[in-house]
Amino acid sequence: MTKTRTITDITPQEKRKDRFSIFLDGEFAFGLHQDVLLKSGIARGDELAEQHIETILQLEQQRAAKEKAYRLLAVRPRSKKELSDRLKLAGFNQNDINWVLDELVRLKLLNDTEFALMFAKNRMITKPCGPLLLRQELTQKGISPRDIAHAIHEVYSEKSEYVIAREAAIKNKKKQVRLDEDKAKKRVTDFLMRRGFNWDIVNDIVENWDNL
Questions:
Q1: Which residue, among 104, 106, 109, 64, has the nearest Cα to 87 in the 3D structure?
Q2: What 8-state DSSP symbol labels residue 109?
Q3: Range of the structural domain that residue 198 is part of
Q4: pLDDT tens-digit readout, 202-212
Q5: What is the strand order of the sheet 47-49 is part of?
Q6: How many independent structural domains does the chain possess?
Q7: What is the pLDDT of residues 123-148, one digit of tens each?
Q8: Residue 126: how many CB atoms within 10 A of its CB?
């Protein structure tokens, strides 16, 4: 015979009016958000099997994970991998994390294709870089090769890698005014290479130093 526990009381929590304390067999058992309480449909006097209790607690964890995800996305857009990593760091298990990711994709609040393009465009505005570095950064964020290729194609079709690299070189050259020409060239070259620009492009820009 399956062992059951009886809900003897459901009371609002003093500090959180949107949460309720659930008492089983006269003892406090767990807290639930009001949305989970309504979704579970439980009431005083109900008898709950352990499996039913576990299902309710899973609903509570999923709700908490989803709420945490909303807060993270309110700070800035994130890729699926970034969001998954932060939720895991917050202590949520992978099953609940996967549920949240699927739910946010369904709600169109999480889209790696759009994220990759937005990130790439923003990168060109704040810290222009070459496709090598951009590809590396997007890979670290868990973006698929297909979405990376799409983002790179889009941003460099708006402005070529050469033009972006030359604009970055002009700005960096101004910072090297106190150095002799050879050292200044090396500084600009190293800067462009760290930014992931193609060596042939960097070399061509530096060779035309007087035109910067």
A1: 64
A2: S
A3: 161-211
A4: 999 999 998 88
A5: 27-33, 19-24, 4-12, 47-49
A6: 3
A7: 999 999 999 999 999 999 999 999 99
A8: 8
